[in-house]
Predict the 3D structure of the following.
Amino acid sequence: MKKIFWFLVSFALLAALGLLLKNSRDTVRYFQDQGRQATLKVGKKYNASRWTEPLPLKKIHAYTAMMLPDHEILIESDQELGEGTEYFIRFLTRDIADAGRALSRLPLVNTIRLKSEVDGTPVKLADADLMDRAIEKAMGPPAKGVYVPQRVVAEAGPDHAKPNVPFLFTGSKDPVPKVLWNNSTIGELFVIAGWAFMVLFLFLHAWSTPLFPSRKAGSERNDFVHPSLRRINPDMPADASVRLQYKPKPADSHLHDTPPAASGPSPAPPPPKPASIPMPSSMKITPRATRPDDDSRATTAPFVPPEGRVETSLKLKRRPAADTMPPSFEPPAET
């Protein structure tokens, strides 16, 4: 139930914000359709300012101005206006001013009326007025005989009992969003932003609230398993690629080869060459020269002399033992 309740609250705040923006748009369109265009030249500012009632959300300032060409007026606005600056406005006449105020849900603080003598003339205070007043209050009254010039005081604000009409800062062809932006203050923008943030916060809170609080969810459940402890099945391996197998060529493959077509009888195929393994260059041996058959230097046995020739015999003689010993050799003495 809490989830539904917070959803209803967030939707109610969102609907209220939407109705407020819609009412502001309708009010701007009413001013554009029923109001009159004018140009204001802002004069001096009154020192006295006041806060809106009942909620002090805006501070209203009073200015003297001139509605071109020659109408001296007095305006009140919640914006700081520059002296001598011209502004385009659109105001309602007295016969429809009450209808315009009743249409708007927000108070129309920008007002305009004719200036009278009882309104007085704005007086500009010195920049150090606040500090001077604090020093005088701290030091106490001056001694006797000291002349203190009269201090300029703030002029009383204009009379608020006189009838006035509302107006908006807008050009003749400004769109509604631009008019709302030009007539909004920083405080109003902060209120709208806070309102929208509150709607978003309540919506997210309602979204995270469980619909059935008694039902455990997430890590509170008995069958909860942390994602890091879950078993992750590996991916299936890819299919093995087909390997190419080597098939030796048969020895009689040349018999099945078809020679190219030629005119005349086909020649006989050449005999197959014996397989030979080339010897490395480092192991090559220079072939020996062939010798004639009658070469007597041959040492092969048996040796058969050629016909008509007598074999030369080689006779070896053994030398005596004394002749074979060197002259400096002496036999060992007998013991």
